[in-house]
Amino acid sequence: MASSRNAAQSLALVSAAKRAMETRPPRLNRLTPLSKLYNPSSLSSSRGRRNKSSIPFLSSNSNSMPYLDEVHERASRNAASFDAEHRLSRNDTLFSSWRARQMNVTRRNPVRAHAKKPVELIPPSPDLSPSFFPPYAHTGRIGPPRFPHDHVLIHEQASIERMGRAARLARRLLDYVCHPSVARAGRTTEEIDALLQEATLRAGAYPSPLNYVGFPKSVCSSVNEVVCHGIPDSRPLEAGSVASFDVSCYLRGVHGDNCATVVVGDAEDGYEEESFDWKDHDGIASPSETTDGLSPPKKDWPSESNNIPRKTKFDSDEEEERFVTARRLVQAALESRDEGVAACRPGGCLSDIGGAIHAVADAYGYDTVRHYRGHGISSDFHCAPFVKHYRNGDAMELLPGMIFTIEPMIVEGSAECTEWSDDWTVATRDGGRAAQFEHTVLITEEGVRILTLP
């Protein structure tokens, strides 16, 4: 679940952080002060508009330009290969034409808020211990953060093991809601939300979004031009739509968080959808048998559905273009997240993540949303560090033990967004579709470990 903070709040946070660093004696334990990660004397060079992640992290340990050129070249080859396979012209004029046509399709049939069932919170129960619930579960108030925003949490081994279990469960839940038998045409996102909540509870966890600052559902479902934080409702999914599901869970006192995007109905005609029976996937919340409590790396997205044949027969050229261009956007979003993850390393630079993501978006001719960020995660749903998904100057050093999310939102048009009157749903201003993928990652002594693997 992405995070944001407006400029005024962030400027206040920067001032508070500076005052704290001037008066607090240095300390390094599980919480690392930001003053240990950047040079305060360079603060003036990074002034400007602030958002949630923009406490100025300044250092001189980043030399990423050659690497980012490689990322752009690699993404350009992948985009060109996709376009050649699907007969999409890379001519600037024609490229703009098919993109404009798809944006017009979305504008003619925009996502609108539909009726929703009343909010149903999970009540206290003798069968559920108080520790089952996050602090906001019954009140909607998140309260003061456990970890101050001018510090970054360095996770120790016991915390890493807990985070790994929550992250793996979040991934299995994500695979479930994204399976074609669940996220299918004709099913409403509210029905998917109910299935997700049932599966989460059955696994012994709490769905993190539910009542977080009043969010009324258990999953964020964002369709077509909705970028993030979409609220599930009674609108049925339509074939060819781009649908993102941001799935988070609270397990044994910590949160797991990830997101993926699917193209609804993108399965070959005549393919028999096999039902995904959640009851067949037990043991997901149990500790791993590995010594560090984390699952060994397995194949990444798509997990359960990577043997499903894609749709090849279409009723019209217009329908084919809708599906093919949706796949292209989803591929770009997935690739941008993976390049962002690959940019992580101990002693590396936080800004390399955004640079790599932006390079992929450029190569595909898309844009990346600025206002919503990745975030640290622990017993607090959102904490430092906050991760920008675009080129930036947050040159903060990455240290072993840091855990945070990388969750770029890639759009086929402009990155400018607007928030609906429900105070949650974020959509593109121009009607361009959006796609998002998210991993929770751990910086290790050797590199980076993805926690949200199945």
Can you give me a brief rundown of this structure?
This protein is α+β, with helices and mostly antiparallel strands and 454 residues long. It has 7 helices and 17 strands.
Identify the notable features of this structure and list them briefly:
454 residues; alpha+beta; four-stranded antiparallel sheet; globular
Describe the structure.
It is a single chain. Helix content is 29%, strand content 15%. It is of the alpha+beta class. Strands 3, 4, 6 and 7 form a four-stranded antiparallel β-sheet that branches. It has a three-stranded antiparallel β-sheet with strand order 5-14-13, with no helix packed on it. Helix 2 (65-85) runs antiparallel to helix 6 (317-342) and helix 6 packs antiparallel against helix 7. Mean pLDDT is 83; it is low at 5-29, 39-62 and 280-298.
Our measurement of the CA-to-CA distance between the termini, rounded to an integer number of angstroms, reads 19 Å
Number of helices: 7
> What Rg, in angstroms, do the CA atoms define?
21 Å
In terms of DSSP E residues, the strand content is: 15-25%
List the uncertain runs.
5-29, 39-62, 280-298
State the secondary-structure class: alpha+beta
Rounded mean pLDDT is 83
The major pleated sheet works out as:
4 strands, antiparallel
- The string of secondary-structure elements, in order, is HEHHEHHEEEEEHHEEEEEEEEEE
Shape: globular
Helix content range of the residues, please?
25-40%
Instruction: Please provide the count of β strands.
Output: 17
